[in-house]
Model the fold of this input.
Amino acid sequence: MILMVNGFACKNPSLVQADDFYFDGLRMRGNTSNAVGSKVSLVTVEQVPGLNTLGISMARVDYEPGGLNPPHVHSRATELFTVLEGTIEVGFVTSNPENRFITKVLQKGDVFVFPFRLVHFQRNIGNTNALAISTLSSQNPGIVTIANAVFGSKPDISTDVLAKAFQTSNEVIENLQFKF
Amino acid sequence: MILMVNGFACKNPSLVQADDFYFDGLRMRGNTSNAVGSKVSLVTVEQVPGLNTLGISMARVDYEPGGLNPPHVHSRATELFTVLEGTIEVGFVTSNPENRFITKVLQKGDVFVFPFRLVHFQRNIGNTNALAISTLSSQNPGIVTIANAVFGSKPDISTDVLAKAFQTSNEVIENLQFKF
Amino acid sequence: MILMVNGFACKNPSLVQADDFYFDGLRMRGNTSNAVGSKVSLVTVEQVPGLNTLGISMARVDYEPGGLNPPHVHSRATELFTVLEGTIEVGFVTSNPENRFITKVLQKGDVFVFPFRLVHFQRNIGNTNALAISTLSSQNPGIVTIANAVFGSKPDISTDVLAKAFQTSNEVIENLQFKF
Amino acid sequence: MILMVNGFACKNPSLVQADDFYFDGLRMRGNTSNAVGSKVSLVTVEQVPGLNTLGISMARVDYEPGGLNPPHVHSRATELFTVLEGTIEVGFVTSNPENRFITKVLQKGDVFVFPFRLVHFQRNIGNTNALAISTLSSQNPGIVTIANAVFGSKPDISTDVLAKAFQTSNEVIENLQFKF
Amino acid sequence: MILMVNGFACKNPSLVQADDFYFDGLRMRGNTSNAVGSKVSLVTVEQVPGLNTLGISMARVDYEPGGLNPPHVHSRATELFTVLEGTIEVGFVTSNPENRFITKVLQKGDVFVFPFRLVHFQRNIGNTNALAISTLSSQNPGIVTIANAVFGSKPDISTDVLAKAFQTSNEVIENLQFKF
Amino acid sequence: MILMVNGFACKNPSLVQADDFYFDGLRMRGNTSNAVGSKVSLVTVEQVPGLNTLGISMARVDYEPGGLNPPHVHSRATELFTVLEGTIEVGFVTSNPENRFITKVLQKGDVFVFPFRLVHFQRNIGNTNALAISTLSSQNPGIVTIANAVFGSKPDISTDVLAKAFQTSNEVIENLQFKF
Done:
């Protein structure tokens, strides 16, 4: 019988192997040829079974020059972000009613914190590729990319709702929805 | 000496009064004369000191016809939503990569769940005022209204970042930022 | 294979439907024709599968004039109580050694907190039916009704034990046990 | 400056002494000359400062022959009960709607579990003094003794409420309240 | 279908029996004829199914004169230790960088706390057998005995690693590994 | 008034600055001129106030050739370990009774998990300096270095205790204690 914990198989401790705790998928650069010029390569419980219940995961993030990891929130995690190569602008916005925008330019070796579930982004503002390691305080952090969730859901949220929410015309909204 | 727990004063148990657990601020209709036509009246640990550490809070939400409680996420809470008057369309979007839009039309007495930190909204689609009670699984749930966080932060997120994230022109973004 | 979490089925996220998060069972008045003149209609993970792991649930409580929701404790929840119709006296008793009785009369729109697992009750002291919404900080709050647990268990707790605990005669205890 | 955690002082780790983790108050028998013939001597964070935040506490319970530790619930703890001397009948009642009474007679060395916040009691059914050690899964478990909370609160819960809850006459209730 | 919670079967509440919450295995003295002269008899979720999810467990510890419960840490628990017979020296070491050694001699009835996951031990320094009850703040506390983990793992940690860690020669390490 | 949470100051959200979430101390190589040839540079709540309550922290670990991060446990954290430069052997030992030694050689870009509170170590087995990033699932993970805790405590654990625990002579133990 297979035991399931949090929806993932839970191995008998006497059968675990080193490979249950190991992942070599970060050796290679992620493919950044896409609309935003960045690529997030995750290491969560899906890639490393031994992470289950251990409350932590991570990601390698590659950026081409100008590449953006667009505004998103993590459903279940704080993020600790370390720059390994390049110069990266980071920022997050505090919750209502302040909505303060906190931002910083990071160099190689710098660390920045994105607190639990606030909207945040990173952008490579240098002339070369950039690379960062993100660590997340959950084995299954969840990602809600704002633009995708709002303008790219399946099916679409009705244009009226979004036009009112963003205080703009239906036409602008339809244009945005068309892109996603 | 005043003891602080979670940043709020913690009364000596032998001094608590019934009023520390009581709130009459929901007796009156909220003022919905604003851009979105809805008003959220919160009952959290700020209004009711006795809620501190108890892990729950609530809100009364009033809507005029067409009124929208715009897309938002709660930083620390699931929401249980009950319609008391009117007909309300509700919806939420699941996290990446599916971004499924789950929606429903609710009548008086209906209950709907907005799971932890997914983007969700409600809209009064009837011809009369609507009223709902929201309950939240934290005494301090936190609210991140998407449009405010993205287009209305102080200072502004740079136009370049948002244009790339929403795959639109700087002009459209500047227009949106101007509204907030 | 069906995944179970907390003893309830956990659906594949790509298969969830709006109805997994929806409940219309609160549309109708509960039947209060019983010994205490009140009826609790629950909305927990048993009625709404989507509540599983989300840490919240609720109930509609109907009261006829004089109706009582008798003294009880919730095993795993704080309760946030809102009066929708009528005038309701509420109260709870703090833990040993104080045993202070904290009480209040609530009108329509008033909110009251019953802290984690203290003995509490509500009573309709008006001349008309009353209605309230209770929200609970657990998807599976548990209810221990004092009179039922003490005098109505199956099998009975021995009369000697209860006579000593309540400092009364075996005859009084047998009478009370007979009612439940 | 004194740091407070959970309302108790939190010593600088470099200043803690062995005595912060030590308690000799269980060396002596508790005084059981009272209405129920038992005495609970607690070891919680109030007696042992080093227990703060550590999530555990304990009690020595002494019983004279026939002595009863009357029906009660712990607000924040499961209890693990070990008999050191004598023969003790124990029992707990499961929550609504079953209200099953689970009971057992324990001898020296036997262990029994009282699950989180269910009503439970113990009684010395032997002819000699009995002694037990209770351990509780919280540094501050909280005790709600049913009879005290219901009939001995200050001020009294109104007689009408209790008469209806226990389905008996006001006279019986007044008699019970008078004892506490 | 059998529900599993935390990897252990979770009975239907209506089928639980008193014996699911009961254990008589502490009635007898543990066998202390071994290299360290002590014996730990555990009562965890493995012995008492009803402990599952309840966050507590316990052990009886027997010691012959001079018997040692050698330095160990519990992976998931604070320990509350009560002496029932004899005179026991106890101690724990605080974490880096202080590494303070906190120690005390306990008599019958004395209680001592071993905080979450610090290295600790107990030793019978009297001339007679000693007996203690340990309670642990987890139903599945985990035990890492230092000497076994470091010198007795299967397969061995390489001699070089341990020689450097303990700043001694390979020969001393090989000798220690040979014993375990 | 300064609010304290977990023993650290908790800033008013409207006063936080980007620098509360930022740390540049990882830009430089740690000094590995010490007995074990490695250096751990921490980024916890002590270095980055904004980490408080966020449940995560990290460290940069530098190793000279042959350098060892000696066997240790983290009191409150799982560790996710990523090699940035060099070839590093890692290992951990499972808890009693198995004490299995799980080991792996990692190259640049490889990730390995050290589960909650098991004894683990890393060693640079290449000919060049090595560098790794460790992330820990607590803002205040705690470190118990085995050799320091057992042989280097202040004051010393008595020689008799350790000789029995490690099944060796008092002379060997005294030698080990002398080194620390």
About this structure: The domain at 29-141 of chain A is CATH 2.60.120.10 (Jelly Rolls). The first strand of chain A starts at residue 3 and ends at 5. Chain A has two domains: 29-141, 145-180. Chain A touches chain E through five residues (CB under 8 Å).
